[in-house]
Structures are given as structure tokens and as C-alpha cells.
Amino acid sequence: MSRFFVDAIVVGAGVIGLAVARKLALCGLETIILERSNAIGTETSSRNSEVIHAGLYYPQGSLKATACVEGRAALYDYCARRGVEARRVGKILLAASPEELPKLEAIAAAAKRNGVLDLVPLSPSDVANLEPELHCAGALFSPSTGIIDSHGYMQALRDDFETAGGMLAFNTPAAAITCGGAKIGLTTGGAEPAEIEASFVVNAAGHGAPGLAARTAGLSRKMVPSQWYAKGNYFSLSGRQPFAHLVYPMPDHAGLGVHATVDLNGRCRFGPDVEWVDENHSLDVSASRAEQFYGAIRRYWPGLRDGALQPDYAGIRPKLHNATMPMPDFRIDVPHLHGVKGLVNLFGIESPGLTGSLAIADMVAVALGVASNKEAPTPSQL
């Protein structure tokens, strides 16, 4: 078994792992990413709505609110500098009935507390002018909500990381972590197992993060969360594409409701719903779930015709709660929380993780004492 030393190890090459590793590499650390699959972003990061969120829903002062609002500004700026396609298409957040208007007002108040000050109240006639086929009792328009080429973004992060000297090891699962010595030890699996020592280790393994934490010697079991899996199914729309904006109903306790998104090609899709599954889940979308989609969508788009929805794709949210629990905040477990020097565990980073990825990377670097809270320049600016 080979043995070697690096400054930092990041486990997981999803959007969060890539953003964190890029940040550490730009801070001058010799950094390696360990990825158990054979490519970047093969799990949660490639199976989402590709929405840049504004920061409307999250409790004031929460990690989700901070990461989303700060991350959104950083993300738009980064995409502009790096030539990644990102477009402020805007979102209509609507109350489908008068009974939902208080929820709409509560979201407007939460957004203001989070520093989102560009929301525009819309009457039903205002909505009809923007999207004639929508039905609602009232709405808010979020001009700073947008869509992004998530694959292009992840590739740009990878390019920055490798240009800064970072190394990516595919087909290399993290088997176990050992803390307590002068350095943190990590043992890899795969075809060529290795033992690596590092000053810093960031567990950004997504669905695998709680399991890896459980295999971390020297970390209290109290710091290892339970995990649940919430499948989000998406359906595409055949025929004419009806909307130019993103359309969101009122959120529920586990997600943002069955919303309508448009991609960068103008293609409309609906989802995700929430389907609680076990660890041995399938990513196939069952056509039988379409009935629930029709009912949810017709609350705000009555003109949806029968047979127009086609199963598309599914993703799995890395949940820290089940169907009966309130939705928790992100968990960014830094050394002063768990007592292990140099270790950061990232748990439950679901939406708005993509939007907040650069801000989360900054938080990790600051917590490890290797950077200020300002975004590092890209290699082309160095």
C-alpha cells in the first residue's frame, strides 16, 4: 500500500467538493480530491433543477440563508468571469388560492430579513401579463433568480483547481479516517489502496458523508448524523413550452413544491416532488407518479393537457430529517464544533447548495484558518 502526504484532502467531486478544493488550492495548499466514481458531479450535483436561488425561504441567520445570498452574488460574478452560461430569467412565486396569501407574505418578510430587497409584488393581472396561462391569487417576482449550466460550472471549478496544482483521483473511495495524531490519516479503497496524511480533510461526500464520518476514528459518535433519502422526480413537457420564467408554488416542509423550470434551451420541466426512499433506491422515474404531478401543476396552470408529461430524471436529496421532522439547516461541522483539528464535515447540503457553493467554500477555508472570507482570484487573475 502506497503512502504519501498532502496539505489537504477533499472527499467528493460534486459541486461542493469541487468548490472547496478549488478554494484550498488557490490558497496555496497542495490539495487532492478523492472521488469514488469515474467523473465529477455524477450524483446530486448533476440531478437538480439548475436554479440559482435568490434566498427567499430560509430562516434569518441560518447557514442556508447566508450561503444562498452571498453565494448567489459570487456565483453570477464567477460565471461572468469564467464564461459559464448563467441567466437571470426570474421567478414567479405564486399563491394558488387566497388561503395561501399569508404564506406568500411570510416569504416576502423572510426574504427581506435575509437581505433580498428586489422582490416585486404581483397582482393576478400582473402575472397574466407575464405568463398568460398561470392562475393565482397573488404572487411575488424574484428578478435575481436564474438558471445555470451546472455541468459547465463544475468543469470551470475543476479547471481552476487543476490549474492551481490540484490533483483529482477518480475511482478512489475514502475508506476510513483516523484523527488524533499530528496529521489526519485517510485510507483509500479502489484498485490501488493508499494511506494519505494531510493537515486538513474536508468530507464533502454528499450522501456518503455521514457514513464516512462514522468511519472516522477520533470523532465523537454524537457528531455523526442520521441520514434519510428523499427522491425528487422530474417530468418533462411535450409539445409547446408555455413559460419564459421559473414558476414556483408555495413550498412544503421537505422541498419547494412541484415547480416549473426552464433550462438554457427554453425547455420546460416540472419537479421535483418528494418521494421518501431507502438507501437502495432506484433513479428511475415511475410514470405512475404523473397523476400527482398533474394535480399539483393544475393548481397554477389549469391548461395542462392530459398526456403532456413524460418521465424525465430523478435525483436524491441528502436529508438529515425524515417526513415527520422539520427541515434542518446545513451542517458545516468545523473543528471548534467537534474538537478535531483540521477536519470539516459537510452534512445535508441540499438546495440551495449549488447556489451557495462558493460561499460554503469560503466558510470552510476560513474555518480551517487558510483564507480570509473573500473569494480567491481565479488562476487567470493571479
Can you offer a commentary on this structure?
It is a single chain. The chain has nine helices and 21 strands. It is of the alpha/beta class and 382 residues long. The two termini are 37 Å apart. Mean pLDDT is 94; it is low at 375-382.
List the helices and strands and how they pair.
Layout: E1 2-11, H1 15-26, E2 31-34, E3 51-52, H2 63-82, E4 86-87, E5 91-95, H3 101-113, E6 120-122, H4 124-130, E7 138-142, E8 146-148, H5 150-163, E9 167-169, E10 174-178, E11 184-188, E12 194-203, H6 209-214, E13 216-217, E14 228-237, E15 246-248, E16 259-262, E17 268-271, E18 275-277, H7 290-298, E19 309-319, E20 331-333, H8 335-338, E21 343-347, H9 357-367
Parallel strand pairs: 1-2, 1-12, 2-9, 5-15, 10-13, 12-21
Antiparallel strand pairs: 3-8, 4-8, 5-7, 6-7, 10-11, 11-12, 14-17, 14-18, 14-19, 16-17, 20-21
Structure summarized in a few sentences:
The chain has 382 residues and is α/β, with parallel strands linked by helices. It has nine helices and 21 strands.
| Beta-strand residue percentage | 25-35%
The main β sheet shows up as: 9 strands, mixed
Q: Order of SSEs, N→C?
A: EHEEHEEHEHEEHEEEEHEEEEEEHEEHEH
Please provide the count of β strands. 21
The helix count comes to 9
Q: What's the overall geometry?
A: elongated
Termini separation comes to: 37 Å
What oligomeric state do these chains adopt?
single chain
